Amino acid sequence: MITDDGPCEKEIRSRTEIARGSFIKLKDVLTSKKIKLSMRKRMVRCYTYVLSTLMYASETWTISRDAENKIDAFEMWL
Length: 78
Known about the structure:
Elements: H1 9-25, H2 27-30, H3 37-47, H4 50-55, H5 65-77
């Protein structure tokens, strides 16, 4: 979403919710105690589409400190 005034909070919020939905679809696998924590982290970062869904087109965002904190909070939630 491109707005006249430049902030990307709506886009960041939208991407966060889409990524949250992606995580929830894979929750059984990503939270399984049968898989080592290090492997689950790799799956979140590399093999799944959770973070790539969140960060899609992020190079075009104008990020405020508040938006950066929200992205960091989502990553910690993962």
